[in-house]
Amino acid sequence: MKKRILGFWEIWNMSFGFLGIQFGFALQGGFMSRIFQTLGAEKDAIPLLWIAAPLTGLLVQPIIGYMSDRTWSPKWGRRRPYFLVGAILSSVALFFVPYSPALWIAAGFLWILDASINISMEPFRALVADKLNESQRTYGFVVQTLIIGIGTWIASNLPWLVSGMGVSDSAAQGVVPDSVKIAFAIGAFVFLISILYTVFTTSEYPPEDMEEFKREKKEKNSFVSDIVNNIGNMPTTMKKLGVIQFFSWFAFFTMWSLANPALTEHVFNTPAPMESAYDMAVSAQAQSFDIANTAFQKSSNLVGSAMGVYGLSSMAFALLLVLYTRKRNINRKYVHMFSLFLGGLGFIMMNFVTPEQLKWCFILIGLAWGSILSMPYAMLSSSVDPKKMGMFMGIFNMFIVIPQIIAALGGINFVSNLIGEEAINAMTVAGVSLLIAGLSNLLITNKSAISYQPEYNTND
Length: 460
Known about the structure:
- The protein is mainly alpha-helical.
- The chain has 19 helices and no strands.
- It has helices at residues 8-15, 17-38, 46-49, 52-69, 80-96, 103-131, 137-164, 178-201, 210-219, 223-232, 236-266, 283-325, 332-349, 358-372, 375-381, 389-396, 398-419, 425-440, 447-450.
- Helix 4 (52-69) runs parallel beside helix 6.
- The longest helix is centred in the middle third of the chain and has 43 residues, at 283-325.
- The chain is globular and about 75 Å long.
């Protein structure tokens, strides 16, 4: 099927739902560790509490990709029904997460939230490949990254902005502050509205051969065997991209799970107070705990705000690429490699900066993030069977979630403890991991993956 060239606003509309998805991910990534710490989690236990996120992605995304490939409704299309279901579930989960009265309930909500976000997210990746001519693929994924950057920056700053409006950062022992609760409620609203905007402003192409599509649906009844078969026969380029993704997402999972304890302790000198260190029956010690906890909550707001800078810089990076790729091709391989190098440098610099300088680290990290959200998917979409785009996008998610599972099961703690016990060592590990990811781009040799080739197409 010959796909027409889409204008900027058409691509913007079909990608706008990612604003809500990124509100969910940014609030989750920036503040779940803070919620866990507020509810009494110790630093070394935090990565394991985060295991819900990659595990649900590993299970949900291939299944949703497979199902959306085999879905067609004349009214709702192929991918949009999954956007809508995921948005409703995610919005409910986002609203209730900060009201968790116990650590195990917060961890349970993280499972529900991440599964729900994944239901919406995977079809969005496939939609770009479905809708766009191959010459516009890089442009389409970069527009998505621009919207993701906007969402990351705004959502990461929400608790700080809410606090600045007079909402309290203080709360009783084991209770999440109101500033965080209101921020999550705003995120839930934005998530739902932005997805609805895409659902009602975007149409989809029907299957090229409707009779063949219906026949295949009847003939194949087991998604498990189909997924396993496609994992075993994934293109070579996809496997090489998987190496890059492994080290990239190990680094960012480390940031999401441990940046708050690492930076509040090392950069702001306000570590989370542990209840066991205070005799709460003694008034003076209870007051000392409240002072230390308020200082931790305020510095956590500042860490979240600083993390929002990586969304802002990824947005600026994506905007430059949007302007450039409208008329020109780029070398995706080298853009991605050097972006990852800069992100690795940003993580390593955290060992040496002051609170005022922290934003420069996240500016560099944002360049890596902007590339991670666009270049691998642009390279992948030029290397797989278009009829199986949803499934392969879901399978590709394995290379995102497996490193996160390894990190959560002790990988971060083990590697960072080889350097020392300080929490900031986890950020050093993240930096080295991104440098390795950057070097791994040298594995990519497929010309159609590296840059759009009008006469060159291969699934190798």
